[in-house]
Structure of Major facilitator superfamily (MFS) profile domain-containing protein:
Amino acid sequence: NGGRKFSYNFYRGSVLLLTFLCYMGYHAARKPPSIVKSVLRGTPLTPGKGRMLLADGGLAVTATDPTTLNGWSPFNAGNGQTLLGQVDLAFLGTYAIGMFFAGHLGDRVDLRWFLTAGMVLSGVFTSLFGMAYFWDVHVFSYYVFVSVLAGLFQSTGWPSVVSIVANWSGKGKRGLIMGIWNAHTSVGNILGTVVAAAMLSRGWGYSFLLPGFLMVGLAALIFLFLVVHPSDVGHANPDEHGSSSRGSGGCSHGPGGGCSRHASTASLDYDGEELMPLSSKERDLGGGKEGSSREKEVESIHFMDAWRIPGVTAFALCLFFSKLIAYTFLYWLPYYIKSTPIEGRKLSAKEAGDLSVLFDVGGVAGGVLAGHLSDKSGASASVATLFTLLSVPCLYLYRTAGHTSFALNVALMMASGFFVNGPYALITTAVSADLGTHDSLQGNSKALATVSAIIDGMGSLGAALGPMLTGFISDRGGFDMVFAMLYCSALAAGALLVKLVAKELSLMRGGGRSPKPM
């Protein structure tokens, strides 16, 4: 803490950059498993035979060398895809469960220390997965154990960075800012894919070591330079800061003297009526000392009270299905590309990994446009539903026609990423931040990490289920059944928001709302 050394905009820019790099690192560390799947799986041997013929008629080396085309035990067995899915479940299941507790804990501790510790330990366990290559580990329980702990420490990231960014961001243009900022997800996926694919020729263990080391290095940056709250450097809260330079336009001053916008968006009041506080306890936001210090200490919101905020349950369940789709692609797309001939030719593991980054390229554009449309219309649920429903024909065409042409495969992959990641990015960022600063909370800033954790925690349960089911289903029914699961998930995600969409459209038709202030 101390006086102001730099301007508010300088600090806000540094926070956006540092949290961008932080969560980019988190996602880069999640990507190696999808890249090495095809190497670990290899080509299953016929039981009782020690050698096999490759597709081109050449003789493969024997299975006694675990680093060969025959895969890596135990994942090269007949149920290898199921085992790979179970490793995904170990990571993502723990991540999902940890998310609920991480958000609640994040509301009560110093977020800079919390993030730093989570990043370091996440990097350590990511690297330990790769060390199995150098230590010649073939015990399935080792991979499950390391994945469980890696997932646990990965859960520290999201509630923390959303809470920190919201501390520095006013509500105006939140969807666009968050849409651009949320590109860290896709940029991290792309970086993790490129690095992991490039390292495959050296040995699959290196594909985990580099992202793990990257996490530790980024943790040092976060610890040294991240400013969690404006008051830590003598600045006012974002809305108060904005009101001092803009006058009172668009703001009303409450009893505490702070600037708070009236609920002008459907995303902030889905019931279309005056909202009552979740607790009768008074929450004092500043005692008239406008812009001088962080708001007085308030109690963290109760976990069950957070579920009662209008819109939280619907968006949390919608994100369950949205992340099921997104993480199925995150963990299985390179494997799917490698196993599916394009124009009659199968790609190598590196080529498949490199090609899969186009899904995330489309995802960057989808997240930005979804955020922009949400800002312009104020109808977050409608935007999310539109993107979700449009993803169904894209996914269907990608499965049925993507293999016929390389150019068509690229176009459909990018379109699928565009529509799949759009609502995923919108809900996990702008919607979570809006709901976490809902008027019913009367300015309780400590609720934000809890709300973010609930929404993304539910999403992460879907993220854990999708890759696991993909391994199980593809072993038995092939990828046609996997894509059928994805179609149904997209339709379910859209259906969950129908009630909120109806209220948004009713408000717009009745002239009872206006677009978010630009």
Remarks:
- Residues 45-68, 243-298, 513-518 have pLDDT under 50 and may be disordered.
